[in-house]
DNA sequence: TATTGTTATACTCTATAACTATA
DNA sequence: TATAGTTATAGAGTATAACAATA
């Protein structure tokens, strides 16, 4: 579709109000907010995560799913959704894609005919051995400005925020 | 969250090593990762933010834009994009919506005919006085599990992650 | 030639309703 | 009836290319 050019407004130039754009931006209020800082930090980590995990073609949520299947063989889709805060319809495509890549398999649940247990394939096990090592190594990289003690403190404090006792 | 059992892969019919879905999910590896914890914490804060900010009809990004305009009168779209990590095409709709709500106005930049400086309207100023108070108040609520010193430490450590010195 | 703001557009992520088959 | 998994789909959020006006 051709876009009509619509020069929206012809503003009068009022010299009375000096509409000056500041050249140094004051972000101090936003930076005082926990939510703002948590979001920026999460995005910074995820950015590095995407780079380092590109060889495995695993996005953060894919990795989370694969990691839970790794450490919880037979976990069901419903359990994955609860643990990760994913809605069931949105998990289906991820699991399908991981199964098509021969990284996981669905097996019938032994005691619930409605459910399917998820398990790693040998290829999935091999990939996750490397992927979890890479994820752990990336932690060190992204937290290189923090001491080991500070990193431990940071993670403990973050848990207190989303897992209030 | 303890893991109670951990059967490795087994044939579906083997009673000895059944492919049982674990009833307690082991999330210990994910919880050791900074990125996972930062994302979960950020989402927890944002959830409360959406509730408390609903009366102002400001989502987190809208609030960030409004707050920067509040403390930086005349700020340009380009500066907002740089400060908040938003892409210019995605800011246009937000600014249009805020302008339609009579919360901000575009004024011509005094020294750059291409740019538009953004300013609060009186209605925008009034709304932001309440909104920033509400934002500060919900900080206390969401960090009620932390002492004042812990909250300060947490924010300082988060800054170190996304603002490496 | 480079930059600001903009349009169009595509792709991803997330959310809701409804269906099936089992319980 | 309630739940696990699924389908279809709608709505946000985020991405790139390209254009007009201005520097």
TrEMBL record, chains A, B:
UniProt entry tagged with the keyword DNA-binding: yes
InterPro entries in UniProt: HTH_MarR-typ, MarR/SlyA-like, Tscrpt_reg_MarR-type_CS, WH-like_DNA-bd_sf, WH_DNA-bd_sf
Database matches in Gene3D superfamilies: Winged helix-like DNA-binding domain superfamily/Winged helix DNA-binding domain (1.10.10.10)
Spans traversing the lipid bilayer: none
Domain HTH marR-type: 31-163
Keyword Transcription regulation appears in the UniProt entry: yes
Keywords: DNA-binding, Transcription, Transcription regulation
Pfam family, one: MarR_2
The protein's name in its UniProt record: MarR family transcriptional regulator
Origin species: Ramlibacter pallidus
């Amino acid at each position: 579709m051709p876009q009509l050019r619509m020069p929206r407004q012809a503003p009068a130039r009022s010299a009375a109000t000096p509409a000056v754009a500041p050249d140094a931006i004051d972000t101090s209020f936003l930076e005082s907010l926990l939510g703002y800082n948590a979001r920026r930090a999460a995005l910074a980590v995820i950015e590095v995560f995407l780079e380092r995990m590109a060889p495995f073609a695993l996005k953060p949520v894919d990795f989370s799913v694969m990691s839970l299947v790794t450490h919880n063989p037979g976990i069901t889709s419903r359990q994955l959704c609860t643990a990760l805060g994913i809605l069931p319809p949105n998990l289906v495509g991820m699991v399908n894609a991981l199964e098509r890549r021969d990284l996981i398999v669905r097996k019938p649940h032994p005691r619930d005919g409605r459910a399917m247990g998820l398990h790693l394939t040998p290829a999935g096990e091999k990939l996750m051995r490397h992927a979890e090592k890479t994820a752990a190594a990336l932690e060190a990289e992204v937290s290189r400005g923090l001491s080991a003690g500070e990193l431990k403190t940071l993670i403990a404090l973050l848990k207190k925020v989303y897992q209030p006792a």
